[in-house]
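Ops channel
N.P.: pipeline sanity check, posting one input/output pair.
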């Protein structure tokens, strides 16, 4: 059986991708917060590399819908 490889920094990967896709869509963090019915501060914490705030699957899903991208894209580690 093949040994599975897991991204030990999955939250960091998701954070970076949320910020990337938000900017590509031309949204501010405040606009994204409004779309998903969360506080601006909470979205800033999610995107922050310093805060390391974890979030629920429901929040992850809402953000992916608001950004028009799949959860799989947000969880995909960028290729170097």
């Amino acid at each position: 059986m093949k040994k599975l490889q897991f991204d030990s920094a999955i939250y960091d990967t998701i954070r970076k991708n949320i910020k990337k896709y938000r900017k590509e869509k031309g949204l501010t963090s405040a606009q994204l917060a409004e779309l998903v019915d969360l506080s601006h501060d909470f979205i800033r914490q999610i995107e922050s590399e310093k805060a390391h705030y974890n979030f629920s699957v429901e929040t992850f899903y809402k953000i992916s819908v608001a950004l028009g991208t799949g959860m799989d894209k947000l969880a995909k580690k960028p290729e170097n």
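N.P.: looks fine end to end. Residues 13 and 80 are 13 Å apart (CA to CA).
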